[in-house]
Target: AB hydrolase-1 domain-containing protein
Amino acid sequence: MTAGETAASFFKYASISIAVVVGLYATLLGLLTTSTVQSHVVYLHAIQMTWFKDLNVPETFGFLKNQVTPFSIKTSDGERLYAWHILPAELYRRHEQPLVAEPVGFVSDITSRLAFQLLRDNPEARLIIHMHGAAGTVGSGYRVPNYRALSAGQPGKIHVLTFDYRGFGRSTGTPSESGLILDGLAVVEWAMNVAGIPPSRILIFGQSMGTAVSIAVSKQLALQSPPVVFAGTVLVAPFVDTARLASTYRVAGTIPILSPLARFPLLFNYLQCFIWDKWLSKDNVAQYIRANEANDEKYRLTIIHAEDDYDIPWHHTPILFWHAVNASVPAGISYNDLELRKLESKVDLGAAGSVMEWRTDNGVIREEILKTGLHDVIMGYPVITMAVMRSFAAVDPAFTC
Ligand SMILES: *[C@@H]1O[C@H](CO)[C@@H](O)[C@H](O)[C@H]1NC(C)=O
Model:
């Protein structure tokens, strides 16, 4: 073969390969516009990650015997959500003997259990409602160290309630935006009416996709009459909305799916019409703040993100923070003006990152940007413990005693 022929065949194969890649990508995009495929991509609920472990044996996830009570919660539209009630370590220690003596496994009537009674009957008990991210179950990944960090500040008092959304793990149904919001509301309803915990002793924690559910639920309850406002809402690694997430998301932190298209705004805007579940957290957070300001309700919103989060870039957090702050100012504030205010009042913590706190007469909106923590390792960090303690102590200073 001459050099010319080699070059010609090289170009032939190169162009065929490019055509194949472009064709596959277009097919992928086409599939992504269907609601079933999209819900699998957004929620990743088919990826359980705990296939070889039984959620009804929480001890295999590193818990003490009967520290966790597996049970289920019914939603208003008839789904059954699989849930774990997790006792904090010190409270467990005080009641170790009778807890160990109880039967193990899934419980159909949780009210019969000592662990539940310790939550319901103690006026000092606090409850964190945990809304996890996409994929997996209550037992997967960094969620277990997350539960420990949540209760670490007061391990005699802080219970955690975590659950799998519809279509995840052992829960019935298939996921959707409206469905997941119903799930969050059902769990709140259980906490307030079955466990009898007033909202001032409840905190909502969400990570990643769970932040969108947390804000949507918090907003809905703040807008109802009479409003329900919790001791705090803590969001870790949130996103502004699905469209902006799609333009920045990388699978496993490396493979961009839609971000190459973000360079073609017309095409990208067109594709946005096919996003079924929009999760407009930026609007929900603004409505949540506006409702609380209008109703004179005390509120506390903490948003935490790590700079090395490769799944959801940390830039989502300053935007969400701005939408929240803007809603607390009657005349509004521009993004750039808020950034200027940060230059004056942001606290630089060196290698630990930075904190910006915005206070109004009614509430506190706090942005914490960590230098490290990735997307999910951060959930086990002491900043999570601190965010919980700050929220509960603001409602009742005696809580830390
Ligand atoms: C900021 O707040 C002002 C005043 O409430 C409002 O008119 C404006 O739409 C808000 N900006 C955004 C981006 O939400």
About this structure: Residues 3-32 form one domain. The first strand starts at residue 68 and ends at 74.
